[in-house]
Structure formats: structure tokens, C-alpha cells
Amino acid sequence: MSGLHGRLAGFVWGAVGALGPPALADQSESSPPAPNFVVIVADDLSATELGCYGHPGGRTPRLDRLAREGMRFETCWATPLCTPTRVMLLTGKYGYRTGYYGIYGGDWAPPVNHPMADVGQHPTFADALKSQGYATALAGKWQLSGTLPGLILDCGFDRYRVWAFDRYVSEEIRERDDWQRPGRARYWHPRILEDGEFRPTQESDFGPNLYTEFLLSFIAEAKDRPFLAYYPMRLPHRPWGAVPDARGRPGKKGFDANVAYLDSLVGRILDGLEANGLAGRTWVVFTSDNGSDQKGKGSLTRTGVHVPLLIRGPGIREASVSSALVSLADLMPTLAELAGNPRNLEDIDGLSFAAVLRGEMEAHRSWLYSFVRDGHLVRDDCWLWELDRWWHGPSGTAGSEFEEVTDPETPGLAEAQSRFAGWVKDYPVGKSRNP
Predict the structure, then answer these.
(1) Domain assignment present for 201
(2) pTM of the full predicted structure?
(3) Considering just the CA atoms, what is the radius of gyration of the chain in Å?
(4) Residue 168 gets which letter from DSSP?
(5) Inside any domain, residue 435
(6) In angstroms, rounded to a whole number, what is the distance separating the alpha carbons of residues 90 and 271?
(7) What is the H or E stretch that residue 378 is in?
């Protein structure tokens, strides 16, 4: 959570081989081993793009299998944009606490050089697990705050491999020919920053493969101690270009091909856990940062915020489907509780749903909240407030069964309006720096 924290995090990881892992809190010889965690976040993927949520294309067999082996949540909300979701997911806090109502560096987020822009000032789920002796690593998309040497390390991660931006690296690196070469994109021949060092790549390198391989190596190396592998994926974000074929060369293009390749990479992670004998004691979480371009990305609507949530873990009932209302703000306290480090919920907005995963209760919250820019989105089991529009009806997988309310005299509407207003009264909306 500071530059010093980041440097120490890197030292602890580097010293593990010589000194051994730090002792786990509240562990004894008779205690079961602490669980591992793999958290995977797709980039621009609506829930309804997966077969287990009703998509007919058959393009996500590994994710569909993950749903059969664990719990699928019918209603999980993100925000409609990547930055506010990713900050909320990491910290368990809504935008009014962090200042992130829009894209990093944009008019609805703290200025890049402002202290409030530093995500590392907030405890993250990586910090919570790290305090329990977990090894932590991240690969894929960062696109949040930070500068070297504390970049990403300041948020509780020991190691990382990410798609690099100019602002991440030194002027010396930016002047290198292999940094400036045209065509350095987010997918093929990408710019890669690994543990603070620029890593050259080849034209035949596909970024998502490199991130997956990094986490697979991390899992194999850390298998004798509890670990957190965080995978904010690049796929299936535009431009939906060619993905590798069976020979590793550019093959099919388009959104469907990119979703299918994402599914195969998730499968590689699951296979890696199995090969290392870790599947039975690892919590695997799969979700997304917002709806896809076809399903409301950027719009404060139920389709824009409805994302998949699939969770497999020790003792979870297979092929279970939960109607619990879940926010991605809930993930931080949930992981902390499952790792034996329950968070003080007074300073965050997320609520742990560990009891739902354990089958001890059906629901952990009675209403859901989302936000972006200067708007709110709120729902409970019967009502949904979408800016100035009200919807009513039984909740469905994607809220598709809600019907718009046009009659102000609709029974129950006045009570719902009053109730919802009370819920959000302490949640100010964002203010643009460029009105």
C-alpha cells in the first residue's frame, strides 16, 4: 500500500526459496491446508455469452464444465466500465470511496497524478491474503494506477506480467527501438512488463498465451504454500482479431473466436491445477468486468452490469445455481473470509457471501447497487431502478422478466421509490472534471 510495501513484497517472494514461506496465521499441524485462490476476470463479457447462461453456440465448454462442478450465480453485478469495476473488485469499495466513477485518467476518475488516484492506498483482496502468508501474482490487464518500482506491487502482488503502457516504464525503455516499433498491440507481439522489467516479444507471441503461461508457472512454483493467482484477462476485448490456431499461428477472427479462445485459456488454468494436485483445495472464481459491446458495455443498464459469476471450491455443491444477489464488491471480503482473514466491513461496501458458497444461507444481501459517471442503478428481488426508469417483476437470470413501469400509481411503486432513495442517499454520484 506504499512504495515500501511494494519493495518488501518483491523481497518476500524472492526469498521464499531460501527462507521458506512465512508462517500461516492460525495454522497447526492438524489444520487442513489453507485453500488457494484463482480469480479470473474476462474483459467485456456478458453473462449471456456463456453456454451455462443459455447461449446456444457451444463455444464455452470449459466454463460450462466449471459451472457444473461448482456454483453459478444468476445475478452478479459489476459496473458498466472496466476501471470502476476493477477498483471495486480489488478493494470492495464503491466509487464514492475511491473516486473511480469512470476510466482511469478520464474525466470521471481522479487525475493521474493526484494522490486519490493511487489504488494502492486502499487494502485489496491481495493484501488480505498476503497478510495470511499467501504468495500472490497477477497477469494480464492492469490499466490502473502506479509507477515503478511500486507498480502493482503496492496493491499486494508479489509478481506480475502485464500488457505495458508508456506511463508504466522509464524514458530509457520508451526510447528503445523494440518499444517504439509499430504494431505493438494488446494481442500479437505485445509490449510486456514483468516484475518491473520490459520483456521483448516476437511477432509470433500472443499476449494472452504469455499471461496464461506466467500464471501456470507461478502455480507450479507456489504449490507447496497457499497462493492467489489473479488473472484479469485481455480477452475478449476488441478488436476481436485473429486468435492462434492449432499451430499457434493467427487463425479465426471475430467475437465468437475470441470468446472460444478465452474459454480454452481458462481450461489450461484448470488443467494446470489438476496436474499439480491442487484442484481439490483451490477456489476458482470466473467473472467479467462489464457487459460486452453487444450487451450494454458503458451503459448504466441491467444488461451493461450483468456479468457471469462461476465459483468452484472445496466442499461447494456441484451444479448448484444461486439466486443470491451478488456485487463484485463482495468478492474482496469473501476471499478474505475463506482465507481465514475476515475484513472489518465498516470501511468497505462489499458483503461476504462465503456462507452462500458453503450452503449455510441462500442470500447475504437484499439489494444490489451499481454506478458509473453520474448515475445509479439499484435493484432488489422485485424492483429495478434504471436512472429515471422503473421496472417491476420476478427476477430472472438477466433481469429479462422485468417489465417497465409507466403508471405512477402502480401498487408498491411509491414504497419502492422511498426505499431505494434511502439506500442510495449516502452514495453520491460522480462529478466530471470537464463538465
Answers:
(1) yes
(2) 0.91
(3) 21
(4) G
(5) no
(6) 26
(7) strand 375-379
